[in-house]
Amino acid sequence: YIEELIAHINEYNEILSLWIRMRKGALSLNIETFSLNELFEIVAKGKQSFEIKHQHFSVSATETKVKADKALTLFMINTLTENARKYTQSGGHVSLSATEGKDYIEISVSDDGPGLSEADIKCILNEKVYDSEKIGVDTARNLTELRKKKGFGFGLMNCKGIIDKYRKTSEIFAVCKFDVQSVPGKGCRFCFRLPKGIGKELAVLCFGLFMGGC
Predict the structure, then answer these.
(1) Do residues 115 and 207 lie in contact, with contact meaning Cβ atoms separated by under 8 Å?
(2) Using CA atoms, how far apart are residues 101 and 193, in angstroms rounded to an integer?
(3) How far is it, in rounded angstroms, from Cα 59 to Cα 42?
(4) For residue 34, with 0-12 CB atoms within 10 Å meaning exposed, 13-18 middle and 19 or more buried, which class applies?
(5) For the segment 119-138, what is each residue's pLDDT rounded down to a tens digit?
(6) H-run or E-run covering 103
(7) Is the distance from CB of 157 to CB of 128 less than 8 angstroms?
(8) What value does the mean pLDDT take over residues 108-129?
(9) Sign of CA dihedral 94, 100, 102, 104
(10) Per-residue confidence band for 203, with pLDDT thresholds at 50, 70 and 90
């Protein structure tokens, strides 16, 4: 119990530290192209925490590559899956997957929990800082249980802040987006988009064609 408590405290400290750096504009991005499945496999190792709540957690393997900060991408995926686990009822389902668009990869976490109201979604997407205690109250199946699970909301705020940071960095990241979809009583889908990564072989080919043209 003590080890688990310390782990939670350290996690909150890291999230708060990230939030402070982001607010100060001191957050730096280490951009690289990497396989998204590397991170999916890491998150999939946490299935036991879902099994303890008798939940089914599915991770769909993906062959896609993204161009982003690997550590921050893992942070976002882990934050969204952990939130889904926390607020989904016992016996519920949580899934992690990625879909490919024209110039982006969309990573999404879906659940069949109580969902969010339209007002909650607008608050999450449009407010930089909000009172997390009010989120989910309208759709909660058990208000007392919901309040026990509540954190400070920095996790979701950081996810949206990271996407905003990307969009300000370069035109390449214009495709970045953070979104929430929900049907009250039927669950939520949190997703974010990152630009497609170009594999080394394709990058070499493009460079060769460019040099040949010159």
Answers:
(1) no
(2) 9
(3) 10
(4) middle
(5) 999 999 998 777 777 887 77
(6) none
(7) yes
(8) 92
(9) positive
(10) very low
Tokens of 200: 């080394």
- 3-state SS assignment for residue 94: strand
| pLDDT range class, residue 19, cuts 50, 70, 90 | low
Q: Which pLDDT tens digit goes with each residue over 160-179?
A: 988 998 998 899 999 999 99
Inter-residue contact 153 to 169 (CB < 8 Å):
no
The residues, ordered by sequence, that sit 6+ positions from 142 with a Cβ below 8 Å of its Cβ are none
In angstroms, the CA 154 to CA 19 distance is 7
3-state secondary structure of 35: strand
- pTM recorded for the entire structure: 0.80
Look at strands 65-69 and 104-111 and give their pairing: unpaired
Cα angle vertex 193, ends 180, 17, to 5°?
80
> Per this entry, what is the length of the chain?
214
Q: Where are the alpha helices (DSSP H) in the chain?
A: 2-24, 36-44, 47-52, 70-87, 118-126, 143-149, 154-169, 200-213
For residues 150 and 121, what is the distance between their CA atoms, to the nearest angstrom? 17
Q: Tokens representing 211?
A: 């040099």
DSSP count for the chain of H helices, then E strands: 8, 7
More confident residue, 18 or 7: 18
In the structure encoding, which two tokens stand for residue 43, read together? 């998150």
Q: What's the Cα-to-Cα distance from 39 to each of 35, 64, 69, 97, rounded to whole Å? A: 8, 11, 12, 11
